[in-house]
Design goal:
about 400 residues; alpha/beta; Rossmann fold; 3 domains; 5-stranded parallel sheet; 17 helices; about 15% strand; binds adenosine-5'-triphosphate; ATP-binding; DNA-binding; nucleotide-binding; transcription
Length: about 400
């Protein structure tokens, strides 16, 4: 049933608060000789994951306690090669798409059928076997090697979009790039804000310096502080050595603070001070550090509203918002959909050694009709999934390779 990637049986972890689903999946995989762990919540799942390797994670998206995405992120940290499939109820597709961004191979909408889950696990394992044999994964490099110029990847080669709305964005990028002005990039998740931040850096005279990206939402307050400002040895339990923060690492370059709307109030005060003086202290330090950094921030929240509700400091908002660039959602720039789809098709076909070079007219029509709540990221994931699911000698992307949510979308 499941294609093994090694001679050993697989360790499969099933996390769902519905006992029937746990039982059904266990009954499906156990007879194949796999070791199946079942957990009714995220906490229990993490206990398993800490004590044994996990090859496959099948996890419900919405559960009491830790969410499926949180479980996925923590298990991926423990077992980076684990393949994850998210189970989702009707109406939570958007979060499921987000889950694929956090490393899930795919998502399945409940009620799913047994063949569908078997096929998805099989494809996920084939994909894992294949990608593990590739020399390097540009997708993985992009989050870690932002300032490594040697790490040229397709990610560094985004498509120049053709829509008038994006022409306006590129125009502001050209004008604002080579200044010290702080830029606030707004737009829904997955629209390409980070790429715009990189373009601002690459077109500036700081281009030979580092580009450092931090996702403010990913870290709890205490970690965020030491991540941004660094810490001295023994500043807190576990700080066995001194460590520079992202501001220091970005010296003479650009610091990109993603999801700035999520930073907690105390950090907002600290950040404001840095933006006024470009000075700060590492956690536990008495000495002040000064840096030369260009700051770019991004948000997918309405910061104006957050200021009015008292959740985001107005003075910090003004400091960040010297130049604003709004990246429109994909549904408002449909001219970009097909060129982007072709761009991703070429990229993923090459990466996966597939032959797909064409998109059928039916697929074009479906892509143009769909609303793309996850924006360019969702389109990218859709095309990657289609490429992985295609037969090795298929040349044209056909509707059958698209998820049902796109094929049956009603505008
Ligand atoms: N013009 C483009 N060409 C190629 N890829 C693109 C383009 N625009 C966006 N993408 C891809 O879409 C995905 C989402 O882009 P990005 O991470 O920049 O979005 P974002 O708006 O910063 O998302 P979030 O708010 O969730 O952080 C990335 O994988 C990026 O490579």
């Amino acid at each position: 049933m499941v294609t093994r990637t090694s001679l050993e049986s697989l360790n499969i972890l099933i996390v769902d608060d519905e006992p029937n689903i746990r039982r059904a999946l266990q009954a499906l995989f156990m007879p194949e000789g796999h070791t199946v762990f079942t957990a009714e919540n995220g906490q229990r799942a993490l206990e398993y994951a800490k004590s044994q390797p996990i090859d496959v994670l099948i996890c419900d998206l919405i559960m009491p306690g830790l969410s499926g995405v949180e479980v996925l992120q923590q298990i991926k940290r423990l077992h980076p090669n684990c393949v994850a499939i998210i189970l989702t109820a009707y109406g939570t597709i958007r979060s499921a798409v987000e889950a694929t961004r956090c490393g899930a191979f795919d998502y399945l909408q409940k009620p799913f059928d047994i063949d569908e889950i078997k096929l998805t696990v099989k494809r996920a394992l084939e994909y894992r076997a294949h990608t593990q044999s590739l020399p390097s994964l540009p997708q993985e490099k992009k989050k870690t090697d932002k300032h490594d110029k040697g790490a040229a990847s397709l990610y560094d080669n985004p498509l120049r979009c053709i829509s008038p709305a994006m022409q306006e964005v590129y125009d502001i990028v050209e004008r604002a790039a080579d200044t010290r002005a702080t830029v606030l990039i707004t737009g829904e998740s997955g629209t390409g804000k980070e790429l715009i931040a990189r373009a601002l850096h690459e077109k500036s005279s700081r281009a030979s310096g580092p580009f450092i990206a931090v996702s403010c939402a990913a870290l709890p307050e205490t970690l965020l502080e030491s991540e941004l400002f660094g810490h001295e040895k023994n500043a807190f339990t576990g700080a066995t050595t001194a460590k520079p923060g992202r501001f220091e690492l970005a010296h003479n370059g650009t610091l990109f603070l993603d999801e700035i709307g999520d930073i907690p109030p105390l950090m907002q005060v600290k950040l404001l001070r840095v933006l006024q003086t470009w000075e700060f202290e590492r956690v536990g330090a008495t000495k002040t550090t000064k840096v030369d950094v260009r700051l770019i921030a991004a948000t997918n929240h309405d910061l104006d509203a957050a200021v009015k509700e008292g959740k985001f400091r107005q003075d910090l908002y003004f400091r960040l918002n010297i130049v604003t660039i709004h990246v429109p959602p994909l549904r408002e720039r449909r001219e970009d959909i097909v060129p982007l789809a072709r761009h991703f098709l070429a990229r993923f076909s090459a990466q996966n050694r597939r032959q797909l070079t064409e998109i059928s007219p039916e697929v074009e029509a479906l892509l143009l009709r769909y609303s793309w709540p996850g924006n360019v990221r969702e389109l990218e994931n859709t095309i990657e999934r289609a490429v992985v699911l295609a037969d090795p000698n298929e040349k044209t992307l056909s509707p059958a390779l698209l998820p049902a949510s796109i094929r049956h979308f009603i505008a």
